[in-house]
Amino acid sequence: MSGDIPAAKRQRAEQLARELAEHNRAYYIEAEPTISDAEYDQLFRELEAIEAEYPALASPDSPTQRVGAPPVDEFESVDHATPMLSLANCFNDEELAEFDRRAREGSGRDELVYCAEPKFDGTALNLRFEAGVMVRATTRGDGVTGEDITANARTIRNLPLRLATDNPPDFIEIRGEVVLARSRFNELNERLEQAGHKTFVNPRNAAAGSLRQLDSRITATRPLAFMGYGIGRVDGAEITDSLYEQLQLLADWGFSISPYVDRVTGLAGCRAYYDAMAARRAELDIEIDGCVFKVDDGPSRDELGFVARAPRWAIARKFPAEEMTTRLNSVEFQVGRTGALTPVAKLEPVFVGGVTVSNATLHNMDEITRKDIRVGDLVVVRRAGDVIPEVKEVAERGANATPIELPAACPVCGSAVERVEGEAVARCTGGLVCAAQRREALKHFASRNALDIEGLGDRQIEAFVSEGLLHSPADIFSLAEHRESLVEREGYGEKSVANLLASIEASKETTLERFIFALGIREVGQTMARDLARHFGSLEALRAEAERYHQRLADVHAQYPDNKAARDRAMVAEGLQAVPGVGARVAQSIADFFIEPRNVKVIDALIEAGVHWPTVDVDASAQPLTGQTFVLTGSMESLTREEASDRLEALGARVTSSVSKKTDYVVAGERAGSKRDKAEKLGVEILDEAGLLALLDQHAAGSAPDA
Ligand SMILES: NC(=O)c1ccc[n+]([C@@H]2O[C@H](COP(=O)([O-])OP(=O)(O)OC[C@H]3O[C@@H](n4cnc5c(N)ncnc54)[C@H](O)[C@@H]3O)[C@@H](O)[C@H]2O)c1
Ligand SMILES: [Zn+2]
Known about the structure:
By secondary structure, this protein is of the alpha+beta class. Helix content is 38%, strand content 20%.
């Protein structure tokens, strides 16, 4: 039978097995992996696929049949009372559905209830308690035999050394993950760096490496935490067979468990849980790399049983890998709306964060220099959540790698490129002469949150700009003069041109805040535009104040030519800076914008073309919470953050995302983290959920007409 296996397959399987065993050692023993988890998983799946096709190749010691890595001599080896297995994993929704289908069939249920938990990205630990006292702690090792690291485990501060109960089981194994919170990880790395030691790549490796220290005094200096997730063998006590209830039991006994554990029903429940955790991932201080779904009831689990390395009743639904390595082929400089030159990496396409990425930002020249990135290098690309993919660091220096240089002239218009002292950003000095800046300014002007011109998207603008139909935003309103030639264009016709011209006409009726936002003033986003509109009520008032500010700035400069602190102090009370959220930098760019004659010309032309808006009644728009800034953090029971934010904004408040001295209130729900700490440090008032509701009620009541 083994004669049927093609030699190439056998060789590949052997090679994969060898490589994976080597990676296991680097990962579990050294805590210094040499490839990313995603790449490891790819190799693992390749081996699994070959073994599925040729089962004779799946030897009992194949990495697909075993867990982790065997213990080393440095620690004493200890057998677990029940094996510590791994988890089957899946990377997409179909595989999750397949798991649910098999679990239902295997257990004979129409629908299963799952205990849903975050999958901690740390390292597993098994604890033995005898008569309620922790007597031994072991690593997972190869799943059967682990390493005795009791002395190290005792140093973990949130790990109870005695169960908080009067009736402990005679014997119990408690399992969980040793983790290092992100914030603690950064502190640790800083400390290591200062002491001239090697730093860790990520919190997981730091946790694993710290736990396996031969000197427990070193472990004691590492801010590790233990998060309980399960129970192994139990003697001398009847405990609930519901995994969800077992977790509550762990919590009662004094263990930290994830605040996000839940009980969900069926595939739909698992999906919703996964989506919710994926959305929350970035803000969690303890890193997670997926969700775990475990069949909650004991009898169903017994029906399902185990395969070699994992239970059939549990699955880890992994988040898409956020980092991958690939080749940096070249660098292009893109010119933005404000002339800023952004270096963009052109990459060998790579699947990361759930999408194929071939462009990633390199941020600016300072970052490139700091990370010493060169064309031809193998680089780590990161795409976390919805953020733009970035080149994080060099993974390996390429042969013949060449340094990246900032062009002296704008790649689009040829104007000089300038780098302002103390700023990381380089800019094209061409202004509206530069087609790239014009194009980006026009895209911004027509975009949804600005004038919202339907039918005039990025693609159309690019075409119109390159054909010379559009130079400045005001030209949009004379497109009607080119009706004839527009109709002739490919992909256009009478009807689409009529639609486009109609939506351009309709966009003339707008609001002051949209108009201010559409101008594309540097540093002025949507929220700021709204605040400016509300504060000044009219464009004339804003313009007048910008001019006054500019003049005042010049005077103050003359008064204190060498004293920036004095200048800053003198400007604090100036008109523009009285608007919430407007600091010296923003005020300066607003002033610069309105002083520039080319901008004034564009504004006048737009108004001339018929763009108009109702005046904002400054007094009427002053609402109970106008001028107050809120930051929301943590979760609340009775309303989501979006709802809270909507209700606050409806009362005139500003809701922002970062806490500063200018923040009036931080609303801290359950599990609020670093933002709450920062508020405490800065002395910003903190409201809990009840406090927020009271505040909302008070103002809602206040605005209702009294009988
Ligand atoms: N980069 C490398 O070289 C390399 C090498 C080996 C392994 N790996 C990574 O490790 C994975 C395999 O490791 P594994 O076998 O430890 O599996 P795993 O880490 O994917 O899943 C099993 C482990 O999850 C942990 N876990 C976290 N939260 C849990 C929860 N709520 N309930 C139960 N368990 C929970 C437990 O420690 C358990 O042992 C691979 O898929 C790969 O991503 C990478
Ligand atoms: Zn240019």
